[in-house]
Amino acid sequence: MSEPKKEKYFKPVEEMSPQEKVWIIHRSCIEKKSFKLEAVNKVIDKLMEQGTIMYYYHCPLCSSYHLTKNPPYFIDFQVA
Ligand SMILES: [Zn+2]
């Protein structure tokens, strides 16, 4: 039985090797700002007022929220 192909799908954190985790942490947790949920909603609202559409996602590695230009399904770690 073959798994259906999942494009732009990130592995669940539990299945990542330490190296992959380091890469993800570097990409999302260090390069991006981390927000609490309340704060990220305010930022999103501000950006929308300025005409910029941004999304946020919950990061399972640092337990905070990061902003992204990609729609959430591109980076949602929980996608089944
Ligand atoms: Zn993070």
Quick description:
It contains 2 helices and 2 strands; from the N terminus they run H-H-E-E.
Taken as a percent bin, the fraction of beta residues is: 5-15%
Main sheet strand line-up: 1-2
Q: List the bound ligands.
A: zinc ion
Give the strand tally: 2
Largest β sheet strand count, sense and barrel closure: 2 strands, antiparallel
What is the overall pLDDT average?
74
Number of helices in the DSSP assignment: 2
Describe the structure.
The chain has 80 residues and is an alpha+beta fold. The protein has a domain at 33-80. Helices cover 32% and strands 10% of the residues. The model has no long low-confidence stretch (mean pLDDT 74). The structure holds zinc ion. Residues 28-29, 34, 59, 61-62, 64, 66 line the site of zinc ion (ZN).
Topology:
Layout: H1 18-30, H2 37-49, E1 55-58, E2 65-68
Antiparallel strand pairs: 1-2
The structure holds zinc ion.
Zinc ion is lined by residues 28-29, 34, 59, 61-62, 64, 66.
